[in-house]
Amino acid sequence: MHRVKVRVVEDALDANNTIARANRDDFDRHDVAVVNLMSAPGAGKTALLERVLGELGDVRAGVLEGDVEGSYDADRLASLHVPVTQLNTGNGFGGECHLDANMVRSALPALPLADIDLLIIENVGNLVCPAEFRVGEDARVMVCSVTEGEDKPLKYPLMFRACELVVINKIDLLPHLDFDVDRLLHNLDAVHPGVESMLVSARTGEGVDAFREWLASLPARVPA
Amino acid sequence: MHRVKVRVVEDALDANNTIARANRDDFDRHDVAVVNLMSAPGAGKTALLERVLGELGDVRAGVLEGDVEGSYDADRLASLHVPVTQLNTGNGFGGECHLDANMVRSALPALPLADIDLLIIENVGNLVCPAEFRVGEDARVMVCSVTEGEDKPLKYPLMFRACELVVINKIDLLPHLDFDVDRLLHNLDAVHPGVESMLVSARTGEGVDAFREWLASLPARVPA
């Protein structure tokens, strides 16, 4: 039975990759660089976007907000005057715990691809399944909060391996935690040697410039 | 296509419930009360168990540790001299983001059911799918950390609705956060009116007595 299940999962991932490539083609046609932004619930993805979206210089950004239900994060971002499109997995997608290529594809007609250079897809908060489904992105970024403990790369290695950048958030809380940043970096290096990481606080703004520059320079770094 | 998908999901949940009832029968036969403990990654499930497991009085507890891979939490609990059994979803279960009844059933032969009164099943850290799969438990408890933000009941309502007790953890950090406990409780009440909740800090021990008493009294509260 497990072998059948693994086969079904593999078929689903194959189908997903095919649709992800179709998304990729559409993004390329419009010269849009795409980031898949992932994290555990409450790690601060939206708070980080609130910090950077309004200050990306010439880069015109848009956001695709993935949530099981509701539009709480999209509402928070609305004041930043960037186009935000809501995608709910609870609306026709069985309340899935992640975005997949087909869900993103269903949202393409609502995205202003001709008017943006950078699309940030904010995934559902979850450290497991989002890492398994490519959606047509150029880069995968995960936000990891220091309140979650140093062991997370070891417990959710697929997520930490899947991304090109790990943003370590909430460093303003470090004085109040029993948290060893070096141990987190050591664990991160064990599962994803050499991956880029940065320390930030979305709350105080510390370190956020580096993330802003990383995002703003992505369209130029992505081969046309 | 979505209707077919919903049907497949419903069939899977039906099958899960059938197996959950078989688990339930086995737990009843051994007079074991069972808690399904859920949370986002890093909310502090294991830290809470470290605080209470050694001090449950006459109640003999055991733990079934659910993780995608590794045995980091089980290793932490080993020093408490309670039986701990590891269940990895990455081992024959496709790396699932939750425990289901069949996975728990596969672990039953390894559980010392004749020697315990209370089984705590620590689920995979995830606020979506664990809430969909009963595993044969008497009660579902979720741990919600104040570092995750007050909006989580609204964004993950199924999880907050599914549980009989919400343990609000990391209250030692409240002085350092922009977090309004009343707003969290208001949001919790909106999705699950009247659900029991308690404020604790696994780090300092504040409020943990109430959780310990809740656990210790569960076997007497569960009808035989």
Could you explain how this protein is built, in words?
The structure is a homodimer of 224-residue chains. With 224 residues, the first copy, chain A, is α/β, with parallel strands linked by helices. Chain A has one domain (23-219): Rossmann fold (3-Layer(aba) Sandwich). Chain A is built from 9 helices and 7 strands. Chain A has helices at 2-29, 45-52, 72-77, 101-107, 152-155, 157-162, 181-191, 208-216, 218-221, and strands at 33-39, 61-67, 84-88, 118-122, 139-145, 165-169, 196-199. A 7-stranded parallel sheet of chain A has the order 3-2-4-1-5-6-7, with helices on both faces. The longest helix of chain A has 28 residues, at 2-29. The first copy, chain A, is globular. The model of chain A has no long low-confidence stretch (mean pLDDT 95). At the A-B interface, helix 1 and helix 5 of A face helix 1 and helix 5 of B.
Helix/strand-derived category of chain A reads alpha/beta
Proportion in helices of chain A: 25-40%
Number of strands of chain A: 7
The unreliable regions of chain A are: none
> How are helices and strands ordered from N to C of chain A?
HEHEHEHEEHHEHEHH
What's the CATH topology label of chain A? Rossmann fold
Spatial arrangement of strands, main beta sheet of chain A: 3-2-4-1-5-6-7
**Biggest interface pair, residues each?**
A-B, 44 and 44 residues
CATH superfamily of chain A: P-loop containing nucleotide triphosphate hydrolases
Mean pLDDT of chain A: 95
Q: Approximately how much beta-strand content do the residues of chain A carry?
A: 15-25%
Taking the sheet with the most strands of chain A, its summary is: 7 strands, parallel
Q: Enumerate how many helices of chain A there are, as a single number.
A: 9
Oligomer: homodimer
The figure for the number of domains of chain A is 1
Rg of chain A is 17 Å
